[in-house]
Amino acid sequence: MKHLRQAIVGVDRELPLMNGGTAPYINFDNAASTPSLRRVLDRVNAFMDFYSSIHRGTGFKSRLSSEAYEACRRLAGDFVGADPEEYTVIFGKNATEAINKLSYRLRLSPEKVVIVSLLEHHSNDLPWRHQGRVLHAPVNRSDGKIDLEDLQSMIHEHEKDLALVAISGASNVTGHITPLREVGAMAHAAGALFMVDGAQLVPHKPVNMTADDIDFLTYSAHKMYAPFGTGVLVARRNLMSREIPPEYPGGGTVRCVSLTDVAWDDSPFRDESGSPNVVGAVALGEAIRFFQEVGFSRMEKIEHDLITRLLLGLARLPGVEIYGNPDPFDLDQRLGVVPFNLGDIPHALLAAVLAYEYGIGVRNGCFCAHPYIKCLLGIEGEAEKRLGEKIRRNDRRDLPGAVRISFGFYNEAWEVDRLLGALEEIWEERSRLVQAYEVVARTGEYVPRGHEDDFSHWFEL
Predict the structure, then answer these.
(1) Cα separation of 313 and 310, whole Å?
(2) Could you report the per-residue pLDDT of 162-218, keeping only the tens digit for each?
(3) What's the pLDDT score for residue 139?
(4) Are residues 248 and 355 in the same domain?
(5) Does residue 2 carry a pLDDT above 80?
(6) Statement to judge: residues 182 and 83 lie in one domain
(7) C-alpha dihedral over 236, 288, 11, 316, to 10 degrees?
(8) How does residue 244 score in pLDDT terms, banded at 50, 70 and 90?
(9) What CATH number is associated with residue 217?
(10) What is the CATH number of the domain that holds 311?
């Protein structure tokens, strides 16, 4: 355990508290982005001596960089069980860009139906709204899970026009894991394609695209301890039409160009216009090697222990409402992600107090999944409409949401205990918080009255 914790850059860094002291920073916001692995940073630094533009340079550094980039592409496909003869691996800047790229490349006609679920991150919902008619499969409000019977009925009802079923492998809000093989079989039985947003799932569970019959998969390096700007789209080669021009035409996308004609290159090159992020690919490749060496089972055991400890602790605190599955021992189909609220304390205020007074970093709000959060909170009808109108006026003081705890393999039991102790103290002192903090209407964030951050002692350009 200590060995794995020390694999993280900055893990025991003491950072300032509002009272003028310092404390070891606790990061419980891993579902948003993970810190860097030390070996990833070291590999990037070692590579920089040889960094060069790739693919058409004849110099030694260019040849070396080209080989490193393509080696990382092979690693990225192999990591998710993608046969290189059947699948192409395309690098971009993150999973959101990868999904947008796929939506563009599939170019669905307006009458075609795309089924997503209500638990989707906006990145696997909004891009499809411009490429066909999007329908949202419902979830069970009690536990936040996709209702598979309703999904099957929806697929059957729209079978004639159904082009794609696009589902998150795991929710970034509740950690619920989707049974991919089952959902993929439903989609393919209806003649539709099957796409998985793996941004949350791939860093925590093994994925095999061939075994699970997945047509498209996206994932992101910044959630895999390699935050250097790389995302991945893995797609069946025969489904990436050569008839559709790249959405970003330019250098690296062509075979030849005349004044009147263009011959586009094959994928992945036509889909990686301009100078690729070679450094980001190297970072991802090293992170994948780490995952392969350590193994998911070891990391999963750590995260399961932390979930159980957290959920047992939350159950003992007054005022806590957990969204999703609250069972501390039902761990097979969930990740280490727990959203909750504490009584009538606004989620943004609770997150601010944890940060400023205890040095605990969490995330709060709707987590780029507004429909899902509103479903879990029971916000609908006129209440949802009034909230929307207020937010459109740039007033986010009543923004609905929750506080989210999300674990990485490097988190430890003492950090969970410190969080639980902080929540207990905050609950007992909740009456003072309204006077101690003020809310910024435009952002919905709470800040201590009279406090100003000074980062210059810690870092500045």
Answers:
(1) 5
(2) 999 999 999 999 999 999 999 999 999 999 999 999 999 999 999 999 999 999 999
(3) 96
(4) no
(5) no
(6) yes
(7) 60
(8) confident
(9) 3.40.640.10
(10) 3.90.1150.10
Query: Where among 267, 293, 319 does a domain terminate?
Result: 293
Q: Pick 454 or 236 by higher pLDDT.
A: 236
CB atoms within 10 A of CB 23: 15
Burial class from Cβ neighbours inside 10 Å (0-12, 13-18, 19+) for residue 40 reads: buried
Which among 400, 382, 384, 398 is positioned nearest to 321, based on CA atoms? 400
Domain residues for the domain of 341 are 2-30+295-448
Q: At a CB cut-off of 8 Å and minimum separation 6, what does 300 contact? A: 204, 205
Q: Is the same domain home to 78 and 200?
A: yes
Final residue before a domain boundary, out of 244, 275, 293: 293
Query: Is the peptide bond between 179 and the residue preceding it cis, with omega within 30 degrees of 0?
Result: no
One domain, residues 286 and 342 = no
Residue 336 CA from chain centroid, whole number: 13
- In sequence order, what are the beta bridge partners of 37? 8
Per-chain mean pLDDT for the chain: 95
- What's the rounded Cα separation, in Å, for the pair 223 and 369? 17
Mean predicted confidence (pLDDT) in 423-448: 95
CB-hemisphere CA count at 13 Å for 19? 8
Reported as a pLDDT band with limits 50, 70 and 90, residue 457 is confident
Report helix, strand or coil for 417. helix
Residues 10 and 99 in one domain: no
Looking at the fold, whether 314 and 267 belong to one and the same domain comes out as: no
429 in a domain, yes or no?
yes
The answer, yes or no, to whether residue 152 has pLDDT greater than 70, is yes
pTM above 0.85, yes or no: yes
Q: Which amino acid is at 49?
A: D
What is the reported pLDDT for 242? 76
- Number of Cα atoms under 13 Å in the Cβ half of residue 23: 18
CA angle 427, 432, 436 (to 5 degrees): 120
Answer whether residue 49 shows pLDDT above 70.
Answer: yes
Measure the CA–CA gap between 61 and 365, rounded to whole angstroms: 46
Tell me how many domains the chain contains: 2
**Does residue 456 form part of some domain?**
no
DSSP state of 176: B
Q: Are strands 162-168 and 193-197 parallel, antiparallel or unpaired?
A: parallel
- Compute CA 4 distance to the chain's CA centroid, rounded to the nearest angstrom: 22
Asked, for residue 455, whether it belongs to a domain, the answer is no
Helices H, strands E: what count in the chain?
A: 13, 19
- 279/422 same-domain check: no
* pLDDT for the residue 311: 98
Q: Are residues 346 and 361 in the same domain?
A: yes
Phi-psi region of 55 (alpha: psi -120 to 50; beta: other; left: phi over 0): left
